[in-house]
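Task: complex structure prediction.
Instruction: return structure tokens for all chains below.
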Amino acid sequence: MRWLRFAVFIVIVTVLQAGMVDILAVTRWDVKPDLLLILLVFFAIYCNTSEAIVTSFTIGFAADIIGSAMGAQTLSFGLFGTSLAYLHRVISIKKIPYQSAAIFMTGVLAGTVAYFLSLLKGQPASSNVYGAIFGSSLYSSLLGPFFFLPSAWWMRMKTPRFRRK
Amino acid sequence: MTRKQTRIWVPRRNKRRAGSVSRRMVFTWFTLAGLILVVAPQEVTNKFQFAFARIFRWPLSIGRNISLSARTRQPLGDVVSRREHGQLQNHLANVTEELVEKHRKVEELSGLRDRLYALEGAKLMLADVITGSIDGDNKLIINRGESDGLAMGQFVLGDNSIIGTISEVSARTAKVKLITDPSSNIAAKIVGLDVETVIQGDGKDSVKVQLLSIKHKVKVGDDVYACKKPGLLDTAIKIGAVAGCKRDDGNPLLWDITVKPACDIKKLSDVAVVIMNPRQ
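Output:
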């Protein structure tokens, strides 16, 4: 793992998520993709388990910095990123549909847990939060696998895929 | 000659490389750090967010401007833009309301001098929006802070209408809690009614009027104003207009009123903070 590249990459993506991802917003509910969620799944799939733990918590911290309350996403991203990395040791997640499904499931679970943790922190309960989590996870899962290739190029990582023999 | 043999104890070599840490330990440490962040007071953890906003102020502003310009349609020829039209409408509404109030005061308290202009003694501190509301958290971070005279509770204007209040402040940045935030409660009144009420954000892009009895007549399109608040706001300023009015499902004796903010908060790139008693 090239940690310096990782750090620069996370900073760039965090700034993009905070400032520019509005361009990609769709529907009247402003559903936006979560680039950090996509990265979480990317590193959980393509790194070894130890690296995946560190990257998951780091990405969660970055998500907290541009979010409403600190700590909630650090914990939820860390937990589900680590779980996904362990799951990947048992089930291979290398086909695009599987990657999309992983992004969607991780987004829904991590978003829900982060929401409850933020309630613990005294953040106000907002209406239609589950719709927002669902929409964002779905959008990220559609966009995510296409974001994997440039991410792999930047991180100088190999992304082997299953091919028919 | 025989050599004397002695047995010495040699520690077994540890399989793990020196300095390496097990996965379980790494996970535990990070989880602990996350838990500390969760339980730490908001004022402390906000410093991370403010620091990020300050360090990456330029790229964030540029990104926001790009996304705003991408989402804003170009105006046609000589037609006045919707935003400018909205600003003027809000300004007109504020001046009209002020005029009505002044007339009433003059009638009731003739002889007492009063201010002619709503915010004559106030300082309007212009601020750029660094980051807008992300993931529906209904807050903005602006590039003015304590060193510019900002304090918690001060009202924030966008396009001449109230959009929220300062909720957290650091030396050079501040967080604005928008009127659409569910935890935002602002005293307000509907034009034509003598009663004050409270408005609360619905977490999306509108505001609900709380606890208003159905004996008051409310029409769609009526303007809603933030009430005066000593030390923070010396005159009523427009918040928005009634967009929907029906009986409350939970309590049929109360109205369920939806108010649409007077400006498009998501498209704001700059705001003004009302400082009523500025330091010289």
